[in-house]
Structure formats: structure tokens, C-alpha cells
Amino acid sequence: MAKAFGSLGDFFPDTDIRCRVRGCNNVWQISGEDALRNVARGRAARPERMCDECYGKFMELADLELPCTKPGCEGTWTWNRFQQLEHGLAGRPADRPPRGLCKPCRDQMREGSDQEIPCRMKGCDKTWTWYRRSQVMCEDGKPPRRLCHGCFQALKELEDQQITCRMRGCEGTWLWNRFQQLEHQLAGKDLGKPPKRMCQQCYDRFHDLKDREEPCRIAECTRTWAYRAYDQLERIIEEGPEATPPERMCHDCYLFYSQTEDREIRCRNRGCEGTWTHGRSAQLHAWLRGSGRPAPRACDACIEKLEALPQKQIECMVPGCEKTWPYEPADQLRDQLQGRATAAAHRCRSCDEFLAAHEAVAFPCSSCAKPIQWSGYEQLLHSLGTFVKPTHCASCNEQKMILDRPAAPEELEHHLVIRVPNAGRWHEDDLVRAWPRHLTPAVIAKAEKADVRIVAIGDDLTYCADEHTETWSAMLEQRLEEKLGKTVAVVNAGIPGCTTRQGLLRLGRDLLPFQPHVVLFSFVFADAWLDPRSFGDEFRGRQSMERTMADMERLWQEMVGLPAPAVYWTPPPIFPENAEDDSGKPPPRWARAQVDAMDYVLRQARLSCVEKDIQMVDFHSRFTVNGTHSAQKWMKDWYQPNHAGAANIAAWFTDSLVNGDLLPGE
Description:
The structure is a single chain. This protein is about 40% helix and about 15% strand. By secondary structure, it is α/β, with parallel strands linked by helices. The protein folds into 6 domains: about 10-100, no CATH class; about 110-155, no CATH class; about 160-200, no CATH class; about 210-255, no CATH class; about 360-405, no CATH class; about 430-660, SGNH hydrolase (Rossmann fold, 3-Layer(aba) Sandwich). A 5-stranded parallel sheet has the order 18-17-19-20-21, sandwiched between helices. Strands 1-2 form a two-stranded antiparallel sheet. Strands 3-4 form a two-stranded antiparallel sheet.
């Protein structure tokens, strides 16, 4: 027989049900009959309801109208009794209700949607969620700046650090907070290498300081350099509040110094092949003074020899004088380098002083009363007892000696004794202090014996070449000797870089002692030369154009006063666009400025020749007669003629001198 089913009460036993109010742990009991009854009525067998205690409290409460929590909203929302009951069971005070929204605000929230907002951290490409409720609560409708979840978690793992101040010598620190560290890390940088910043004390000092201009450390320079506030702060930390500014170069001087290299310059002593180093500092000082070339100087080997050579006393060359003159070590070294075994004859100081104090005098002949000229040198010999004072004039002596057969006069081997003075205004300038390199004892000796003497004085273009045989002056000398059949001496007194002003200083040494029959002169290249390494709006010459024009006026006046004819010659054209030195090619604007300066000086020189009636030979036009391309075939570099160009100059000079009746005996 089958087992019987239980009653319906077995399916619905009495049950304890937890109170429906969140936060309440009480229970209430429902019987099986009540559960069965609920099922019969179509309800849940075990409904949710309050416990008796909560129900009692619920009945004591009343709904409250509270203002909307959205800033600026005047609406209200209902805080019902059930919500109040749960609020109290959660342990929250009744006077602090939750933040609720009014109905319009809730409707606005329902219509909106959550938004993904980029993380506020620079370098992070992630987002954070801006929920609808937060959007409604926002007053301006703009999302706040927040971190994404990943950045927020990384931020919590970091700690603020004290970092040493970046200023050298400062022991202070600055705070590197977690936010800055996270930004540093997101930029791909190592946290072990924090940024360089100042501590607060240094930062405050820094803002009290201002950049200021300080004078350049180079004495000849009048410019300034910027003493930055940062550098001032470093100096104050190192030396204290009374720290003095450092000595520095201005921008232009530093640029020149950094782009310049030491140069090896040939020794000033003729015959020495050694060199000396022209350092960058010395070049900077020379650049600021406006001098294009360094002053002549001896090499180290010559200086050592000078220190080892003692001063010697040499007998005076005047017959009967027993005194001596000092043979200086510099003169000894010069003679050694030129192959001289002994010193050249000189007068002692006493004899020179005697000659300076005694001019030639005239006294009457004892026979005919005609004046007898008695030179200072004869007076000197007479004072030394080696010369008898004359009593008869030359005519009386000739009559007296007519019965005697005079000895044949000694034929002199020369026409002139050239005495180059040792002291003069040329010592005022370092460039022209030394003799021109092509002016050697051999040249002087030939000039003394020559039938025709020509002095070419000028600058780089007169100097022409290091080898004397490659100069146009040497070629001119050879051509004139072949043309005239006489001994001709063309003295090359050219000094590279010598301007008209410096040429005026050396006329008494390099021109007048030779008593030339013709003078050839030109300083236009040195006068017009511009420094390609000048810094600024304009390129700097060796001196101002106003001063150059005044010097040219003086030189032309000196040439007019010479007993010999003076001939001015124009140089060949220049091609500065082809210029290049150790520093590379100069800027194109320098080439244009150099051509303009050359044209200006050349134009003024031509006008001066017309005004002073000085003959001029125009080689500039002859070089360019077939165009500039043809002229460049005769050039060694951008301004100096090559061998063929020098030969052309010599040939043109020969025609001008011979056909112009400028030479003696023509």
C-alpha cells in the first residue's frame, strides 16, 4: 500500500523572517497558516515586513521636505519615513540627512549619461568616469580635474621627497611631492633622477636679482657682457653677499677668441727661418686695436741666442778716435744671421754728438779771400788731430800744385753713400719698426753703385712675394738694365699691411736716404682693407676713412716736395669672393663691402693725383681690358698677382718710365 502524503501545513512551517529595514537584525515570525493564506490570495508566502520595533518607530516618524543639494537649485525632495528609519539604524545622526535631489534634477540625471574624462595627469592617456549624478551636481557643467584609477593607485604608492637644491654650494632642499613624481614618471623619466630646482631660499634670492651689464674683461674693448641673475646667485652662494662679478669677455670678443687659432709667424730677423706663436689672446688684442698684422717678433731660438750674447765694445770708425761704440746683442745676432763675420763700422756716441753740434762753416782763403767750406766731419778729424785745417781754397791749391804732377784720382766704385738712420718715428709703430723684408744689405750696396735708383714704397702689392726674384720690382730692375744698358737698382720698400699713415712714418728711413731718381708709391690696398672677421653691422678697417683721407693728403704733399718725380700706380682688381683663410670663406657681404671700400679709396687717390699734378699709371684698367675673367688668369689669389701678372706690371712700368722721360739721362 502506498505511503500517504503529509498535510499542507508540512509545506508551510512556522518561519522566522528578518526585518525588511536595512540595518535591523530583528526577526518576526510567520505561521504556516498565514503563509498558506497568502498563497491562496496570490501573494508571496513569506512577505517582507518590518519587525514590531521598527514598525513602532516608523509610525512615529513623518516625511520631511528637504532642499535640493544641487548648488543654486531652489527645489526640494521628500525624505520619507522609511529612509529616515534606515538612516537612524545606520548610526547616522538625524540632523544630518543624506544629500538628495529634487525631481527636476533627478529627471535631468536620468536623461544624461556617464562620461569618460581624460586623466588630469600630463602624459597619461587614460580616463575616469564622470557619473550622471556628479554632472548634475556640477555648477558650471565642466568636469573636475581628476586622476584616472591607475594614476590614483600609483600616486598612493609614492611619497614626498626632499631634494637637494640645484645651486652649487647650497645645502638647502626643496619638496618634490608625489604628484610631481608621478608626472615625472609618466614622462618616461627615471625617479632616481629628479629635476634640478632651487630651494625656497635660493628661489627668493633669485627673484630679487636682475640681469645686468658688466664691462668686457679685455682692456681695449668697450662692450659689455650680460651678468645673469642665475650666475649672480651662484657667486653669492660661493663668496657671500658682497661677491664681486667675475671677469669675462663680451659676446663679440668670445666669438672671435673661440673661432681663432694660434698662428705661426716668421721670425722678424732676416735670415732666420724660425717662427713664433701668435696666440689667440694676442690676436684678439690686435683685432680690438684695429691692427691687421702682428708686430714683428723674434722666435724663441733667436731670443735664447740674444740672452747668451754679451754686449761688445767696438772701436770707433773715425780715424784718431780711441773711443768705442756698443755692439748690442740684437745687432750681433742680425749680422750672424746675414753671414757677417764682423760688425759694420760705426761712429762712437761722442763723434755723433760732435757732428750734430758742428755744422759746415765757411772761412776766407788766406791768399784770395774766397770762402773755404769746412765740413763737420773735417772739423771732427781736426779735433782728433788727424786732419789739418785748410788755409787755401781749391783754386789756390791748384795753382800751387800746377808744377807738380798730381797722382791720378782714385776712381770711386760708387756714386752715393747710403746711410739708413737707426732712430726715427717708425719706431712708434710695431708694424714698420723693422726694415722691409726685401730691403737687405745687398740691395743697399747695389743702390750705392747704381746709375739709376728707383724706390718702390707701399703695402702688400708692392711687397708682392716672399721670394725677391718673384716680385715685379725685381723684374722691373732686370728689364730697365736690359733697356738702358746701365746699372739700375729698384728698391722694394713694401711692407704688407702698411697704410698711408704708417708709410709717412718711414719716409725718412725707407725713401729719403736712397736719393732716388724716381719714386713709385701705392698704399690703396692696405688703406681699403676690411677685416672679414669683424663682428657687428659694419666690417672694420685698419682706421677710419676720414683719417685715411687726411693721411693721403699729407703723403701726396710730401711726394710733391721730393726732388725726384713721384709716380702713383693703381693696383690690379681684387676678387674678394675667392678669398679663403684658415677660418674658411668670409661672408658674401664682406666681399661686396671690400670692393666698395677699394673703389672709394682708389677714386680718392685718382682725384689727389689730378689736384697735385702727380703722374699716375693705371694698371687696374690694363688688367681688366679684356674682362675680369681674363684678369683672374694673372692673379695668384684674390688680390695678389701671380708671376705672369707681376711680369706685366714690370713691363708696363718699363714703358711708362722710359717713354715718360722720368729716368736720368733720358
